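note to self — DONT lose this again. spent like an hour looking for the file last time. sequence + predicted structure for the chain T wanted, 606 res
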Amino acid sequence: MDGLRHLLPRLLRHPWLLVGSVVCAVFSAGGLGVGLVSLGPLLRIILEGRSKETVTQLISQYNATRPGFTVPEGLVELLPASPFHAVVAIMVGLGLLTVFGATANFLHQFLALELTNRAVAEVRTEAFRHSLSMPLGEVQRRGAAELVSRINKDSMALQAGLLALTSKTVAQLTKGLAAFAAAVWFDWRLTIVALFVAPVLASILRKLGRRIRRATKAALVAQEDLLRVSNEAIQGIRTVKTATAEELAGARFEVANQDVLREELRVRTARAISSPLIEMLAVFVLIGLATLAARQILDGKMEFDSFMLSLAALGVAGGSLKPLAGLVNDIQASSAPAERLEELLDIPDEHAGTRDRAELPRHADSIRFQGVRFRYPEAERDALLEVDLEIAFGEHVAIVGPNGCGKTTLLALLPRLFDPSAGTVSIDGHDLREVRLDSLRDQIGVVTQETVLFRGTIRENITFGLDVDDDAVRAAAELAHARPFIEALPAGYETPVAELGTSLSGGQRQRIAIARALLRKPSLLILDEATSQIDAESEEQINLAIADFRSGRTLVVIAHRLSTVLAADRIAVMDEGRVVDFGTHAELLERSDVYRRLAQTQLMPG
């Protein structure tokens, strides 16, 4: 329950559902209790009804045997004088109580289901939104499979536990208590003896619950790995097929699947033993009570009908409480996903620390990297080392360097996807860590080599994150040289895009991504090899369009094509995490060995 307890306050967000569910459960259990209590006078009337005494006299005699626990005289006066007619009246009352209890039970279940489903849906939404706002480094460290597993799989497991708690447990517990109260009515001595077994049952359930919680948590971790393996294989199905690696992919899945199976089987003993063990203890308690009652009856200290009724009420209480063993297991099992979801929600939000800071004015002066160092978590060496670089507003700067030299990492610092380990990154003299994060990112358009499109229409992918009219969408598509192929499609801008954009070619996907970035009208445009999958003719047209678009904006590009590099005002040369030179193409050819080597070996002709 420890992990679940942190998420339970979310149920209070729907107080009327919670209160209504509990009240209906109490009414349902109250009907059961009243019905059991009514069996006492009913049995006395049936057993003694052949005598000349009236129903009122019979019930008065019945009341005399249970001081402090009597049938109210007002109810007695409502019963017919004839024993048979009184029995019929009581039976009709029991029937009405049954209908009332069933209706209350239905409402309890209905409200509890709505309460649980709403609460879990809110937790799932909160976990998803929080994952989107987590620092990129934390997202990359955990991986998509873990986050998706926690958002979806863990919330489903949490739902099972919350449903067991709010619906089944409340219903069974209130019914069990009502039946127990009826047993106290009939004979409190037997009931008190039965209570002695309660601590033993609680201890057993607690120990089994801990084991179930630990095993469930391990199983969820194993399921994350299974999801990761399956996602990699299905999303990379083209590579799997062309590499004839179906057997390898299948073997990796089988290993992960066996890990899940092993963890799930660890909990089978604890789940399987709880109900039989409690049933065995209940039988022993019943034997003890019967022996004690026999002694009392033989000594004339207990009425036989009181013993039978008390035993029957305890049996009903035991029948109602028996499912609690399985329900407690379900609740304990849901504690593990609750802990994992709570752990996810406790990760700092990258926006939280910047909401009370000043907004960044629109970029109009310069971008500066001063003594910047950066190291990825758990990496052995820095990805960036003492980077010093200044880019004037409106300047077109190309960044080049060998693979792995830190180009993409450097540009990732501008929208604060990462923060430097040391040094500062500033725009117009404002340290990026001291301004509102959304005011920074609203000014930046980014297009990467790994183009990401989402399931939806082409228009929705271009306007992703923005609310603009069709004219703006068409203008951005025109600027990105995407309008001709989009309008050639049968549905035009409403053409559906498959998951990850697989229904479009690589070049088409990149043009849509460029249109998305241009639509933002950024003051800073970052292109990370954004034209790498576009043919030379299209690239030339896009470069011409960007040349017009970048007026009054700063443009920073990472490129492997010489034509893109030559279009830049200045070029920053990086090597092993450092900016080793900065200048024009002609200047760098004359003085930079690294740039000269790149121009000869890596920069492709346009």
